[in-house]
Automatic annotation (TrEMBL):
GO terms of biological process kind: bacterial-type flagellum organization
Homology family: Belongs to the FlgD family.
Protein name: Basal-body rod modification protein FlgD
Record InterPro entries: FlgD, FlgD/Vpr_Ig-like, FLgD_Tudor
UniProt keyword Iron present: no
All residue ranges annotated as the FlgD/Vpr Ig-like domain in the record: 109-176, 247-320
Domain of life: Bacteria
Function text: Required for flagellar hook formation. May act as a scaffolding protein.
Residue span, FlgD Tudor-like domain: 229-359
Keyword hit for Chloroplast: no
Annotated keywords: Bacterial flagellum biogenesis
Amino acid sequence: MATTNPVTTSGVANNAAKTGQSTVKLAEDFQQFLTLLTTQLQNQDPLSPMDSTEFTNQLVQFSQVEQQINMNQKMDNLVSLQLASISSVALGYVGMDISYVSAEMNYEGKPIDINYALSEEAVTAKVNVYDQNDNLVYSADVPKNAGTNQVTWNGTKTNGEALPAGTYSVKIDAVNKAGTAIENSTVVTGRVRGIETQNGIVYVLVGERAIALSSIVNANATTSNTGSASAALGYVGMDVSYETSDLKFDGTNPIEINYSLEEKAANSAINIYDKNGVLVYTAPASQMPGTNKFTWNGASTKGGTAGAGDYTVKVEATTSENKNVNTTTFFYGRVDGVENKGGIAYVTIGDKSVPASSILNAKKPTTTV
């Protein structure tokens, strides 16, 4: 099982300290050289002056060494700045539940969702969980569908006996019709408790595991930190999805509306109202459970185009028994700031101000780090 050796930022600090010591030593040597040179010049025979070539060569060498030390110092400064920038991104994950690509997971007494992707449909598929000594502690049949699947491990042995908290590894063993093993990858979940650096690379800590930022698939705010200003700061620069029924139409650009149904509906519709509560647009919506999309181009049911302004969208759905289906509307955007309103933390997304507690999930943009 893979292990990690934590290394702090002292490595960068030590390099900077060594550069500073080299600069001081060079200055001392150069001062001694100038003192010696001045003394020799003062005491030389005017009728037989010394050859200045050697002194000139030594001056050139001192200059070259000084330039090299200055270059090293600037490189140390660049590394420190880059490390600080990446660390600020990593700090945003602290306290959040993340999904990350890994075969290892940290069990803390709570169920762990294990996502895995199969390149093709399997005939048989099992999830196998191993302890730190590579002993098989849990095995069960899992979905065999091609694509992404999910299974939840409750932290027990195959016989139902509870296991202690700690680090475990997971493996999906899947076989196709030809009896060949199917390649797959696993994504596990955990809560970030801190960050550290290893050889100048920033990692987030999940339990005792150090996770590379590049392995993080997405991050979800926990119920305990969604409303705090410090948690909201962690969203700055990240791409988020957030729950809201409010939308702003600029009069020209279509708006993509994302919505989800908790169960299959027999009847469903997307209704858009103006700020006075007047229905301006209605259209059939998907009746399938899960996430769906709809694009509103500002059209009005009465004809023409609705004017620019604030609107409200509602997805209204019922079952065949005429019972209401729970629905959620949400949008995507990149957080560019944080503000406080009446003691409640909000994030700014373009010209919108969204409560931090309404954020459903967040992930770093592909251009970050």
